[in-house]
């Protein structure tokens, strides 16, 4: 079971038409809805289950620029500006604080890797810097482990995933967007190379514009349109603790643990060095697409052959009708957390910070990260189908970049001047033979 989420009120009435239908009620889809509704368009958001019920509420809660792929940095900076305005934008405190983030280094090799990022980030590195000695120690109060150095960005921050997307949803509804929970989209209708309508489990909505922001489900939905989207899932496990009165502020990533202070005084804790991929039929379908990043990250990757593979094979054998109903069969994807990995990470954290020693674990959970072969998202129109915008594949970056991604997607729908150059996020790069060049892991 995922963490408790602030409730989102769903509309009972299905409109017969809308300027835009957004598929997916996570932070990306909801942010897109907010900016479109504020621009005066009629917007419907269809969510197959609970708004923000999947990765949008299950992530670490980091809002960072540090370490991002250079192609993402202009959009991340715009997203950070929107996070600064979030309180006034949505009328609620979503916990955003610029409390800084540390990447802890145990060796000169770690330092060299981060210095390489500083070089590649160029002017977008802003206030990121390598620190050590007393400067680093001052940011790790109570630590009994001495780290060689760290990459530190004071302007990076944190927010509350269980509050942010629901707050954006409420603001979108206030601006006029219609939010439909427990309303799966079964198919997208087209005619003459353009979007014409969507068929939901509640009925049909006539529209000329669809935004697919369905996270890990996006590839399956697009396949029904004959569109190939290489995207796979990474299972990310997290635990949260009770309050820690004298714990470190902000967030940090280390070789054996990662932590982020929560608004409630507790901490979100994970192991950021291991990635778990549940093998599914798409793992074979997109194997060659992901080979470059697999070669780069294989030391940190674990494959799990189990229930997801069998379920995927079963759906495939039952044909297209069963595939459409799969969205309704799994209202909220709730993968099992790796409690052994989490417990090991928490034990390592306690060695470094004894103040955590008697702090209870409140909950374990897991979410599914939607990853692309180059770990850069798709935020793009689609040349083959007029009226379609895809916003998916955020590769673990979706929460922090979410408001900026939603703004960019809304610009693309409207044909407005985009907030940043959308070229790095174009869909066609994944299907036209462009060489995949991942610079970060997922």
UniProtKB/TrEMBL annotation:
InterPro entries with a match to the protein in the record: FAD-dep_OxRdtase (IPR006076), FAD/NAD-bd_sf (IPR036188)
SUPFAM superfamilies on file: FAD/NAD(P)-binding domain
Domain FAD dependent oxidoreductase positions: 19-412
UniProt KW keywords: Oxidoreductase
Family from the record: Belongs to the DadA oxidoreductase family.
Protein's name according to its UniProt entry: Glycine/D-amino acid oxidase-like deaminating enzyme
Organism name: Kaistia dalseonensis
Lineage of origin: Bacteria, Pseudomonadati, Pseudomonadota, Alphaproteobacteria, Hyphomicrobiales
């Amino acid at each position: 079971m995922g963490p408790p989420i602030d409730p989102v009120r769903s509309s009972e009435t299905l409109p017969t038409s809308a300027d835009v239908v957004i598929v997916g009620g996570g932070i990306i889809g909801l942010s897109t809805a907010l900016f479109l509704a504020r621009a005066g368009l009629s917007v419907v958001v269809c969510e197959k289950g609970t708004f923000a019920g999947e990765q949008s509420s299950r992530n670490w809660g980091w809002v960072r620029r540090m370490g991002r792929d250079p192609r993402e940095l202009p959009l991340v900076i715009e997203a950070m500006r929107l996070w600064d305005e979030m309180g006034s934008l949505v009328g609620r405190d979503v916990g955003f604080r610029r409390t800084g983030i540390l990447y802890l280094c145990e060796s000169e090799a770690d330092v060299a890797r981060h210095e390489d990022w500083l070089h590649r980030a160029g002017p977008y590195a802003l206030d990121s810097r390598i620190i050590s000695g007393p400067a680093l120690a001052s940011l790790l109060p109570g630590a009994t482990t001495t780290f060689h150095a760290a990459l530190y960005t004071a302007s990076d921050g944190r927010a509350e995933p269980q509050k942010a997307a629901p707050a954006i949803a409420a603001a979108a509804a206030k601006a006029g967007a219609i939010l439909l929970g427990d309303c799966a989209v079964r198919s997208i209708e087209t005619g003459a190379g353009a979007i014409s309508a969507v068929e939901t489990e509640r009925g049909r909505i006539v529209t000329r514009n669809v935004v697919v922001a369905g996270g890990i489900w996006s590839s399956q939905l697009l396949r029904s349109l004959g569109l190939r989207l290489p995207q796979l899932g990474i299972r990310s496990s997290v635990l949260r603790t009770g309050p820690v009165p004298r714990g470190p502020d902000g967030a940090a990533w280390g070789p054996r643990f990662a932590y982020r202070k929560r608004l409630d005084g507790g901490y979100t804790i994970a192991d950021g060095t291991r990635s778990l991929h549940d093998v599914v039929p798409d793992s074979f379908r997109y194997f060659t697409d992901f080979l470059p990043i697999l070669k780069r990250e294989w030391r940190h990757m674990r494959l799990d052959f189990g229930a997801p593979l069998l379920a995927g094979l079963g759906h495939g054998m039952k044909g297209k009708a069963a595939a459409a109903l799969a969205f309704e069969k799994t209202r909220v994807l709730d993968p099992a957390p790796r409690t052994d990995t989490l417990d090991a990470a928490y034990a390592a954290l306690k060695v470094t910070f004894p103040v955590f020693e008697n702090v209870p674990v409140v909950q374990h959970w897991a979410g599914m990260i939607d990853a692309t072969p180059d770990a850069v998202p798709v935020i793009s129109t689609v040349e083959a189908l007029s009226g379609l915008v895809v916003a998916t594949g955020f590769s673990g970056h979706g929460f922090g970049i979410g408001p900026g991604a939603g703004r960019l997607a809304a610009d693309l729908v409207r044909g407005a001047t985009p907030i940043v150059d959308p070229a790095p996020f174009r869909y066609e790069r994944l299907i036209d033979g462009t060489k995949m060049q991942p610079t970060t892991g997922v």
